[in-house]
Write a structure and sequence with these properties.
Layout: H1 16-29, H2 32-64, H3 69-81, H4 83-122, H5 127-170, H6 174-191, H7 193-219, H8 221-227, H9 230-266, H10 268-275, H11 277-282, H12 287-327, H13 339-345, H14 364-368, E1 374-381, E2 391-398, E3 403-407, H15 414-421, E4 429-434, E5 437-438, H16 444-447, E6 448-451, E7 460-461, H17 462-466, H18 475-485, H19 488-494, E8 500-501, H20 508-522, E9 526-530, H21 538-549, E10 554-558, H22 562-567, E11 570-575, E12 578-582, H23 584-590, H24 592-609, H25 618-625, H26 639-645, H27 653-656, H28 660-665
Parallel strand pairs: 3-10, 3-11, 6-9, 9-10
Antiparallel strand pairs: 1-2, 1-4, 4-5, 7-8, 11-12
Length: 677
């Protein structure tokens, strides 16, 4: 049985036009004065329209047809002179138009930039391509469309008001002939607005999708060729291009429907007036009034209606769609998945068994231990569906305060591992967890710092560069970081922390020292050095690594020299999907690859340490860190010369241990070096 009582009103559907209108009302209220001044200048067009038809009617009825040509000429002169104020009005209108148009574009650009920054910090996704399109292409569409819409609406409103007022002044019966076709044409036109807006939105979405695909394609050409996925890539491109073509054709078909509405509004009123002219003249309409009415319809009202419908049908619909895309609030970061899902995806943190790190049976003390800083659980990563995996079901646990080194030949996946561990690259399979929780982009800045081989230094003071990741750092803390990392020579050369840093005037080694000082000052829970000391000499590298290892957080070093592995508590040896993890002593017994690497790099270690020292003799490394010099590998030497100096002639330091650059040259990396944040 249906309960009696008032039926609750059905909520209105929140359309794009309503969303844009909600945003437009406060924008226009804040500029009421500009709108009123614009209307004031437009009154001159109202007068010009009114006098054009009324002057012609009076010139015929009171002048030429009445035998008074002077009076007729005078009324024609009045109609002609009325055009002059409209020229002055155009100047005033365009002056006020900028006060409405430019604030809109500036606000849209600010919103798009804020969305991009918030999205980059708060969530993953294709934020950059959409925001770039909004800042450049779509904001210009909005500005041009808004300017054209204001001009057209203003012109139509005051022109139509002048024409209707003139028709009333000539003969009210004229409105019975003119208004019906105008109303029918307007209704037909308004009926096409919703589907046109939907087609405009679909077209813009297809355009953005194709632009994003083209951007990814341009950055991954070498990877596509290496993985043999050219056919699939061409098919995806054809599908996106076909979707864009279909959207444009649908938009064109609905645009053709509007031709009928324009014909009804612009062509039918004069035609009906001519057909009804005998009846009107028999019922008291004067010839001058008939000619004046035709003047209003042909020279004023019909052009204004056609301009309005054309503007609303093309730029107006596009404007609503573009503005609606700006009003979309960026989605919040993804919430954590339910605990049951997390437990299914990842095993408990204190009892993980994986091939890289053997696990023993969990004890009560292990269960009470803090969660690892980072975990990989059976992580697989490949740069394409048909490419060989760079990481193959790799499991790894990194505890708080641990020092882990990663070594292996060039192209073995060291830089890829660093990117996956830092959350820069999502794994193809398996799961990554930070501090017991699944990786989220929103947690990145609070959990880890990744330093790539090519250090990021910007123009500004040395103080600002060092405080880049920790803006609230005090001068005493900055000085301690500079001393710990070994920045004193650079600080002495620049003169002070406030000295300007010009990146092009710093060597690669000096840039790496600045980046290391920045990371040391930030002291993140997880610090990943992806060959971030490759341009430092062994003594400077030792000093910087020992300083970072002394921080409370975990340190992962993609080793440039095997001495970095000997300083670490554990070392992960990578040879593509084959990995082995352990202490240096364990790896010398169990890993043939590690023994090969140790044999190749033994001369370098002897040179750096003075020879004859045990692998874990950190005091000797510390003494080396106090050695004189700036600690930088000379810029003028090429890789072969440096390798020869370190005792690796015939192999080269990049060939024996591996580098991110070499890995990218082999087609492993498909994206630019990651950000230092």
């Amino acid at each position: 049985m249906k309960a009696n009582g008032p039926t609750a009103p059905r909520p209105r559907r929140d359309t794009a036009l309503r969303r844009v209108a909600r945003e437009a009302r406060p924008f226009l209220r804040a500029r009421t004065g500009v709108v009123l001044r614009l209307a004031g200048w437009s009154l001159l067009e109202f007068a010009q329209t009114f006098l054009s038809g009324y002057g012609v009617a009076r010139a015929l009825d009171d002048g030429f047809l009445a035998g008074r040509p002077a009076t007729g000429l005078l009324w024609l002169a009045v109609a002609a002179v009325a055009v002059l104020p409209s020229v002055l009005a155009a100047r005033g209108v365009f002056g006020r138009l900028a006060d409405l148009v430019e604030p809109l574009r500036d606000g849209l650009v600010r919103r798009a930039v804020s969305r991009a920054l918030g999205g980059a910090l708060g969530r993953s996704g294709d934020v950059s391509t959409r925001s770039l399109s909004q800042v450049t292409h779509q904001s210009e569409i909005a500005r041009d469309g808004w300017a054209g819409l204001v001009l057209t609406l203003r012109s139509f409103a005051f022109t139509a008001a002048g024409a209707v007022t003139g028709l009333l002044a000539l003969a009210p019966a004229l409105l019975l002939i003119v208004l019906p076709p105008l109303a029918v044409g307007a209704a037909l036109f308004l009926a096409t607005l919703p589907p046109m807006a939907a087609r405009q939105r679909a077209y813009l979405a297809a355009d953005e999708a194709y632009a994003a695909h083209a951007g990814e394609l341009a950055a991954s050409v070498r990877d596509i060729a290496a993985a043999g996925t050219a056919g699939r890539t061409v098919a995806e491109s054809e599908a996106l291009a076909g979707a864009q073509l279909a959207a444009s054709r649908s938009l064109a078909r609905w645009s053709a429907v509007r031709v009928l509405a324009l014909a009804v509004c612009g062509r039918f009123p004069p035609l009906l007036l001519l057909l009804a002219a005998p009846w009107l003249l028999r019922n008291g309409l004067t010839p001058g009034a008939l000619v004046g009415a035709l003047t209003y319809l042909i020279q004023a009202l019909a052009p204004a209606v056609q301009a309005l419908m054309t503007m609303l049908g093309t730029a107006g619909g596009r404007l609503v769609v573009v503005l609606d895309r700006f009003t979309d609030a960026p989605p919040p970061p993804d919430d954590d998945p339910p605990q049951a899902v997390r437990d299914k995806a990842l095993p408990p943190a204190d009892g993980t068994t994986h091939p890289a790190v053997p696990a023993s049976a969990p004890s009560s003390s292990a269960r009470r231990a803090p969660a690892p800083v980072a975990e990989l659980h059976e992580v697989t990563f490949a740069y394409g569906p048909r490419a060989q995996p760079v990481l193959d079901r790799l499991s790894l646990t990194i505890a708080p305060g641990e020092h882990l080194a990663v070594v292996g030949p060039s192209g073995s996946g060291k830089s890829t591992l660093a990117a996956v561990l830092a959350g820069v690259e999502p794994p193809t399979g398996g799961a990554v967890r930070w501090r017991g929780r699944p990786v989220r982009a929103a947690d990145a800045t609070s959990v880890r710092v990744l330093l790539p081989q090519h250090a990021y230094v910007f123009s500004g003071s040395l103080r600002d560069n060092l405080r880049y990741l920790r803006p609230d750092a005090r001068d005493r803390e900055i000085a301690d970081a500079a001393e710990a990392i070994g920045l004193e020579p650079l600080l002495s050369r620049l003169g002070s922390l406030d000295a300007d840093v010009v990146p092009d005037r710093l060597s690669q080694g000096e840039r790496q020292l600045v980046a290391l000082g920045r990371a040391y000052l930030a002291a993140p829970p997880l610090l990943i050095l992806d060959e971030a000391t490759s341009r430092l000499d062994p003594a400077a590298e030792t000093r910087a690594e020992l300083a970072c290892a002394a921080l409370p957080g975990a340190l992962v070093v993609v080793a440039h020299r095997l001495s970095s592995a000997r300083r670490a508590g554990r070392t992960l040896v990578m040879d593509g999907p084959r990995t082995r993890c352990g202490t240096p002593a364990e790896l010398l017994r169990s890993s043939a690859l590690y023994r090969d690497l140790a044999g190749l790099w033994e001369p370098e270690d002897a040179d750096a340490r003075g020879g004859g020292l045990e692998p874990d003799a950190r005091d000797a490394d510390a003494r080396d860190a106090d050695a004189p010099g700036d600690g930088l590998v000379p810029e003028a030497q090429d890789a072969a010369a440096v390798a020869g100096r370190l005792g690796t002639v015939g192999t080269g330091q990049d060939a024996s241990i591996g580098s991110g650059d070499e890995e990218r040259e082999r087609g492993v990396r498909s994206s630019p070096p990651p950000s230092p944040v």
